[in-house]
Amino acid sequence: MVLRPFILALATLPLVAGCYTLQPVAAGDLMEGAEVRTWITADEAEALREVMPAGRRTLDGRVVRIDPTDGSLLLSVPVGSTERSGVRRTLRQEIRIPEQGLLQVETRELDRTRTYLLVGGSVAAVGAA
Fold it and tell me: Is the whole model's pTM more than 0.70, yes or no?
């Protein structure tokens, strides 16, 4: 049956996210364009309450730049989306987070072991089908 391998492939899709892990990184080691998750202080979360939901202390975004003078991080964060003519566009806003407002910065890194296990398991499942 042709449908069975397709269903198995769809079933593994949620696991693909498990192939990545978040790793702490020093703000000074970040590169422009890197996708990051920042953990911010309660005071900083309060200052950003118009952009992020109440009680949330993490902010995901793309590094625009790091100010060398004060260590602040300029992030481009998604704030919504629009759809026009079948094309979805993410709306982004640049947010400055002062160095003292950052608790931790994390980047996504590929977990090779999980990836190899997932690919090997998927190949075995499709082969058995």
Answer: no
Domain over 3-128 is classified CATH 2.30.30: yes
Partnered with residue 102 across adjacent β-strands are: 40
d(CA 121, CA 72): 43
30-54 residues labelled b (16+ CB within 10 A) or e (exposed):
beeeeebebebeeebbeebeeebee
Return all residues near 115 (Cβ < 8 A) that are at least 6 apart.
19
In whole angstroms, how large is the CA radius of gyration of the chain? 19
Q: Where are the domains of the chain?
A: 3-128
Is the model's pLDDT at 74 over the cut of 90? yes
